[in-house]
Structure prediction request, 430 residues.
Amino acid sequence: MDPFTAAVILIGFLAILGLPIGLSMISGSILYLFMRGQDMGLVAERLLNSMFTGYVILAVPLFILAAEIMNMGSMTDRLLRFCNALVGRFRGGLAHVNIVQSIIFSGMSGSALADAAGSGRIIANMMTRDGRYTRSFAAALTASAAVIGPIIPPSIPMVLYALVSGASIGYLFLAGIVPGLIMGVLLMVLVVYMSRARGFPVEEPVPLRELPALTLGSFPALMMPVVLLGGIYSGVVTPTEAAAVAAAYAFVISIVLYRSISVGTFYSGLVRSARSSVAIGMLIAGALVFNYVVTAENIPQALRIYLAEYNLTPVQFLLLVNVILLLLGALLEGTAILLIIVPVFIPTAAALGIDPVHFGVVAVVNIMIGLVTPPYGMLIFVMQSITRAPLRAIMKDLVPMIATLLFALGIITLFPDLVLWLPRQFGYQG
Prediction:
């Protein structure tokens, strides 16, 4: 059997048995090297070299820690009250609050799962209280809105894309802002339509005289994205250092200013952050090793030559990539797709003249939509466990929301100038 085929079969077999995908990829890579008669030490060498030179990887656990600290303290509650004061007065107000809080909270955690498990859990419980919204609708909307989290900076998937592509993290962060806002606005338009069709309730409006106090109370939390992005684009800190600043800022605000975290709670949060970081770190390690196998087989170059025979235009190529990534996103874990599959397409995208920052945003949006796409969509199962809504009902309510997100993906794919407009304002030459 061909060594590469044997490696892929072993990876799939071990993953089906329940072995973490990172360890499965390392095992498959070792089998490949053994069948090729190559030194097994290449696995360790590849891993260590990539880790020592991959300074950007440090941003991942730091963003996870920042999100965990915010979920532990009162920062999330303050932001939700602020969002409710802004848009809660309209029909379907809590549904709008759900989307707006995802847009605001996305500027802090960088993780869709962190958004759903933290602020998403709170707003979903608010929506289902007293039966104002069905549990399935609350679960579907919260999952769909959480997709915005890793699009608007900071973004852990953007960091991982920068790791495999060499693109600038700073420009990737900037490029995600407009697409994230497009997705949020389109979801809010959908909520307006569904609110009228289903007769969603109108919440009691928060008096405008209370808005200054609510704004003041949430102001330190609202300033976190400003501090984070301002530090990056002013040149004071690198994106990786900015992740450390984000964690430190969340710590100071939650413990010193808000005084909302105890020692025991903080320790539990550190443990959860460490476990999440180790899980992602193992996946990154496996992908780095397996990428050596992919490169050794010359698969990216072979794919580029194969696709060149069809004379695809950049738009046709992007649409093809969308279809492939959406199908894979329904079956595989998003981080694995980003670290293993996406790098295969990067040389072809470069050969077609597709901007690497635009391509990165398109790839990340695809992968995030996969989080709410049956049958694998992880966000579906997270929200089902939170709301206890029937899985079939959640998927039924997800249909128009996924269609809306796909429409947003089409805009992002076909109009690269929308994605690159903001990076160009800060000097990007792409």
Q: What stands out?
A: The two ends are 44 Å apart (CA to CA). The CA atoms of residues 7 and 31 lie 6 Å apart. Residues 263-296 form the longest helix (34 residues).
